């Protein structure tokens, strides 16, 4: 059973930077049924340009006959603040002016996304998550949520993510924003503004999501005579155009800024101390050839989150492997959850 929903927050939504959003709306999907004691909730946090339909973009891990299936679990995925898949974003109408926000939309961060989703969880009467899972920007959300509300999550799964966004990651995002701003239409107050720049930005991003080996495996030429019109060139153009058909430059701009702002240590004693606040049983998964979120970032998480487990996910695709290698993720995550459940039963017997 799958349903699309809209949650409307009727109070002013105050952002971390002190600015306010009026008329906050959050689009979200649910799948399956909530059991009597509300103990079967799986909450998936999506990445940069994804939407709330997790069964669509994380097939193989979520869906019928998958590890996270609607027959057994109540699955929730909510569209993030700033994304145009139904949640308040730069193309939304500003209730004060009656016009779309565009570049007057207030900047926001990962903590604001998490705060909005906590409001949604409260509205649904959910007091505990069985599993909170996310990769990349989704992992940043899940981590921040587990730090800011330590008692809310039983099992935390962090994939290809970090405790604070790195200078390397910020540099990639800034390069993409520079590409967007070379397109003068970005300042034209139009829903289609900045699309040529967005196409270039996506091409830059793709280089950080994939690897040398992945391009060799899929884009190598079959002949030696070519001097132009290469497969790799066509692929970059295709991927840029594909994103432009389903996304907008303004949401992309703001969401990359939100990713840059991610730092669990901000306003707390330190990054390490913040990670120590996490009470959930945590599994950290890293991809050895991930260029954007190198393995050292996941090793840092596993070393500082109390009793965290760490696993490597092997993939030829680099960062994008977390969306592609669903069979291996099923094995890794499934074994982790089974082991946790077994350990809890043993503890109960010991205390009985």
From TrEMBL:
One GO molecular-function entry: homoserine O-acetyltransferase activity
Residues forming the catalytic site: 136, 290, 319
GO BP terms, alphabetized: homoserine metabolic process; methionine biosynthetic process
Cross-referenced SUPFAM superfamilies: alpha/beta-Hydrolases
Binding-site positions, substrate: 202, 320
Record's subcellular location: Cytoplasm
Catalytic activity: L-homoserine + acetyl-CoA = O-acetyl-L-homoserine + CoA
Pathways involved: Amino-acid biosynthesis; L-methionine biosynthesis via de novo pathway; O-acetyl-L-homoserine from L-homoserine: step 1/1
Principal EC category: transferase
Alphabetized UniProt keyword annotations: Acyltransferase, Amino-acid biosynthesis, Cytoplasm, Methionine biosynthesis, Transferase
CC terms in the record's Gene Ontology section: cytoplasm
Domain AB hydrolase-1: 45-324
E.C. number: 2.3.1.31
Task performed by this protein: Transfers an acetyl group from acetyl-CoA to L-homoserine, forming acetyl-L-homoserine.
Similarity remark: Belongs to the AB hydrolase superfamily. MetX family.
Record note on quaternary structure: Homodimer.
Name assigned to this protein: Homoserine O-acetyltransferase
């Amino acid at each position: 059973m799958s349903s699309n929903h809209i949650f409307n927050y009727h109070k002013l939504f105050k952002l971390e930077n002190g600015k306010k959003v009026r008329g906050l709306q959050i689009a979200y999907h649910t799948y399956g049924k909530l059991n009597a004691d509300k103990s079967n909730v799986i909450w998936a946090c999506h990445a940069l340009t994804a939407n709330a339909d997790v069964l669509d973009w994380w097939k193989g891990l979520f869906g019928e006959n998958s590890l996270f299936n609607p027959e057994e679990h109540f699955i929730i995925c909510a569209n993030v603040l700033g994304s145009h898949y139904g949640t308040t974003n730069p193309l939304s109408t500003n209730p004060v002016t009656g016009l779309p926000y565009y570049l007057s939309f207030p900047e926001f961060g990962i903590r604001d996304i998490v705060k909005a989703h906590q409001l949604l969880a409260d509205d649904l009467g959910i007091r505990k998550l069985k599993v909170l899972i996310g990769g990349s920007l989704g992992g940043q959300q899940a981590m921040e949520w587990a730090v800011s509300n330590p008692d809310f999550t039983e099992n935390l799964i962090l994939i290809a993510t970090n405790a604070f966004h790195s200078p390397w990651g910020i540099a990639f995002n800034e390069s993409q924003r520079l590409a967007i701003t070379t397109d003068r239409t970005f300042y034209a107050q139009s829903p289609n503004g900045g699309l040529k720049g967005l196409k270039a930005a996506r091409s830059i991003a793709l280089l950080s999501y994939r690897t040398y080996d992945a391009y060799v495996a899929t884009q190598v030429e079959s002949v030696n005579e070519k001097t132009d019109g290469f497969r790799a060139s066509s692929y970059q153009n295709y991927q840029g155009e594909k994103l432009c058909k389903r996304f907008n430059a303004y949401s992309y701009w703001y969401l990359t800024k939100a990713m840059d702002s991610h730092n669990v240590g901000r306003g707390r004693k330190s990054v390490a101390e913040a990670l120590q606040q996490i009470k959930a049983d945590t599994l950290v998964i890293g991809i050895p050839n991930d260029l954007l979120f190198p393995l050292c970032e996941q090793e840092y998480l596993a070393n500082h989150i109390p009793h965290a487990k760490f696993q490597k996910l092997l993939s030829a695709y680099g960062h994008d492997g977390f969306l592609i290698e669903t069979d291996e993720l099923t094995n890794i995550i499934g074994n982790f959850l089974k082991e946790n459940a077994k350990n809890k039963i043993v503890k109960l017997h010991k205390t009985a």
